[in-house]
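Hi U.,

Before I forget, here's the chain from the pilot set. I'm dumping it here mostly so it's searchable later in email.
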Amino acid sequence: MSRKIAKLVAPGERMFNLDDEPFPSGAWWWWFWLFFFDNPKDPSKPRQLMILWSTKNCKRIRCNSLNIKLDLPIDKKSMDGAVAAWYFDGEKMHHDFLLEQCDIKVSKDGISTDSKTPTSFTMRDFISRVRIGDRFDFVAEPKGADDFLRPNYHANNFVGSKGYAITKINRLDLKGIVDGRKTGGTAYFQRVFVSAPAIPWYWGVFHFANGATLTYTNQLVFGKSIKKNITLFDGSEVMEIDDIKVTRVGGNIPKFIVSGESKDYKTSFTVESYEHSSWTFRKKSLGLLPNKLVYNEYPAAIRDFEFVDKKKAKKTSSKELGMAVGNAEHTTGYLF
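Structure:
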């Protein structure tokens, strides 16, 4: 049996204050950003950058080519961890754009690293700023007063201390400087605490041109869904479907066929990826059990979108919402 909590949070609350969260063996913290911004050479394939700062309560873990040996116990103000990023520049994907073990300095309104490429994330009055060396300087803030666009906190605690907590902001307006030039777009943020094994999942977030936002998730244990839903915010109303299906089609640059239906709503669409980056996490095997998680991320667009509100006999398509761009994830394996 699980206990669920969901509420709005104020700037800084649960964003950088780690004192009230236990940190048992194997637990993870991470701060994760996705930035979607203009690509003048091909507007249908916006540039994207992902960055995360993370630490895990374990002695050793390998991420791609980086062997991480952590200094335990973790100091919640100066955490031994890592910073990682990939960057699609509009033409080429830069894998492991950042991948470095470093100390993550935590203050009341931000985090920062003195890594080879210095990074920082601060948040004041719902306005966030992310800097990556001297190439990227982003400012992101929610547009509108709807709760869906504000920091939301959700926790799901299972047996004992096992579970997760997430604070996320589904959509923010973005402006910034990239390589000395002004840019604009949208962004997504989540701050996650996990004290349970990492399991396979499908996930996606997409921002439509007219301000609508779509998210979906399907978490799996041995092929069986344990959590799945689609949420569409059309700019004024939040509509949710709890029964969905996600099917992957294709190879390294796949499509994902997504559909769902409830008593009130029905939807179907195709997620069409246009690039790919991946993180492979490895720990010491547990006997005959492999201890490996492959975390794939795909810059993507949505095609053939349709959403039906049965109550209102209303059908919404990409024609009304405009182009949708975002990111899809497909993760395989288990990490204990």
